[in-house]
Amino acid sequence: MESSPSGTGRITVQEAAERTGHAVRATTSDAADPPVLLDVREPDEWNAGHVPGAVHLSLTALYEGKPLPYETQGRNLIVICRSGNRSRRAAELLAAHGVEAVDVIGGMRDWAEAGFAVVDARGLRGTVA
């Protein structure tokens, strides 16, 4: 795991998939309470394609002070965006507010390239916008 200048952790898509149960050899640290994958892209990007089971709250909404979705409350977060830039900023913002969060290096582009599932708003095969 890498660290950014602020100390916020960064993980690869493979590590994210393992921790969230999306990889063949999933290794969630606590099967009863695995980390939540938080997608911080904009709504049109989310609708085009996201990780099944991920939770959405855009970086814009985070900066506006919107609360985290219920499913993320009290949980460790793995933050993802398209490339890893917005997710790094989101993880740093969340960490500044006491939330355990790491971001995914390479984001959804690397996730899809690695062959992990991406679904659209209807649950069909999605694309990374």
The gist of it:
By secondary structure, the chain is of the alpha/beta class.
Sketch the topology as an H/E string, one letter per element.
Answer: EEHEHEHEHEH
Helix/strand-derived category reads alpha/beta
Low-confidence stretches: 3-7
Q: Termini, distance in Å?
A: 27 Å
List its salient traits.
alpha/beta, six-stranded mixed β-sheet, 5 helices, 6 strands, disordered N terminus
How would you characterize the overall build of this protein?
By secondary structure, the chain is an alpha/beta fold. The protein has five helices and six strands, in the order ββαβαβαβαβα. It has helices at residues 13-20, 43-48, 59-63, 85-96, 107-113, and strands at residues 2-3, 9-11, 36-39, 55-56, 77-80, 101-104. The chain has a six-stranded mixed β-sheet. Strand 1 (2-3) and strand 2 form a beta hairpin. It starts with a strand and ends in a 16-residue tail after the last helix.
What topology emerges from the helices and strands here?
Blueprint lengths: L1 E2 L5 E3 L1 H8 L15 E4 L3 H6 L6 E2 L2 H5 L13 E4 L4 H12 L4 E4 L2 H7 L16
Parallel strand pairs: 2-6, 3-4, 3-5, 5-6
Antiparallel strand pairs: 1-2
